[in-house]
Design brief:
Elements: E1 2-4, E2 18-21, H1 24-39, E3 54-56
Parallel strand pairs: 1-2
Antiparallel strand pairs: 2-3
């Protein structure tokens, strides 16, 4: 099982939940920078920003069963 957003309490569930963590700091910085540009009179630009999430592996996931070949 895998969650999304990595709430601070998720690491304390039983078993601890594997999750996808968003780069909140980078996303907030980009939003503030864009807002300040518009406040300062820069024309609004239509861009798509892509941010790299992080997979935080905990005990809710694991390797599959070993298969004899």
């Amino acid at each position: 099982m895998v969650g999304f957003d990595d709430s601070p309490l998720i690491a304390f569930t039983d078993p601890p939940l594997t999750t996808v963590r968003k780069p909140i700091g980078a996303m907030a910085s980009a939003a503030v920078e864009t807002l300040l540009e518009e406040i300062n009179g820069a024309p609004g630009k239509h861009v798509e920003l892509m941010f790299q999430p992080e997979l935080v592996v905990r005990r809710s996931t694991g390797s599959g069963p070993l298969v004899n070949r």
